[in-house]
Amino acid sequence: MRVLLIEDDRVLGAAVRDQITADGHSIDWATRLDAAGEYLDVAIYDLILLDLMLPDGRGQPFLRALRARGNATPVIILTALDQISDRIEGLNAGADDYMVKPFDLSELSARVGAVARRYSGNPNPLVTLGDLEIDLAAKSVRRSGRPIVLTAREWVLFEAFVQRPGQLFSKAQLEERLYSFDTEIESNTIEVHVSRLRKKLGRERIETVRGLGYRLGAA
Fold it and tell me: Is pLDDT at 186 greater than 90 in this prediction?
């Protein structure tokens, strides 16, 4: 996934960034709401992690404005505000989940995965595709009962195909899932990752639609 983190605490922000990156996702980090708005103007995100107390305003009005514009990107609030009234306000503003600081980074990873599965239309983490058994929560794949080891970036691409079977992904869309704005991308990166996935999972698993992109194969 491509994640937008809106957090002004440098220490916590760096820890969250490193955790999300280690999970195989790409992440952009804004420390102000105005900067976050600029990111949202030029990129499409799969998830937003939102602090409520930013130097240039509060997160709740920002979230309400986002929803009013029709932006349905899932949002997890990360905040030190722990009163029930704060939770209710955040959820009513349009948040999908609410985590109180300090929180465990492993729990954050689990909640990110759960929200992503809900929005993909398949909250069940267990998926079977032919001879493949996939556990989206555990980030594991077995082929005919044999474990298949995928790198973090291979997993991100494969997860995108699994969560949206039949959807055609352009090269640019797949690059957005893998990399943040400050990352240099080699021209053949997606082709390399797709080739490696085919070697591990079977060539028929990912189809190429010439000139348009890739999608999960019917096999």
Answer: no
